[in-house]
Design goal:
GO molecular function, one term: oxidoreductase activity
Strand order of the largest sheet: 1-2
Shape: elongated
Largest sheet: 2 strands, parallel
Pfam families: adh_short_C2
Protein name: Tropinone reductase
Helix content: 40-55%
Keywords: NADP, Oxidoreductase
CATH superfamily: NAD(P)-binding Rossmann-like Domain
Oligomer: single chain
CATH topology: Rossmann fold
Number of helices: 5
Organism: Panicum miliaceum (Proso millet)
Mean pLDDT: 93
Length: about 100
Amino acid sequence: MTKGATNQLARNLACEWAGDGIRTNAVAPWYIRTPLVEGDLSREEYVESILARTPARRVGEPEEISSLVAFLCMPCASYITGQTIAVDGGMTVHGLYPANE
């Protein structure tokens, strides 16, 4: 629900603020290797369940989020607004369940 709310907030604010030259976008990550998830990523069975749902078959790295955010701040992204960009190795297009379930 929170990702849905974030998506809608980015869209609504983009409509309200675009006329003032303000862009609003959101980033929706899947599992990214950060201290917050290191405990989860230390459990091999849990990691396998994540990888089974991720077509890229790996966990994301923090640089993959920060580089997207940096891109969105650049002039070359000035016409992008109201978008929620998934940085998830394909999880959202694949679905929550592994192909064999």
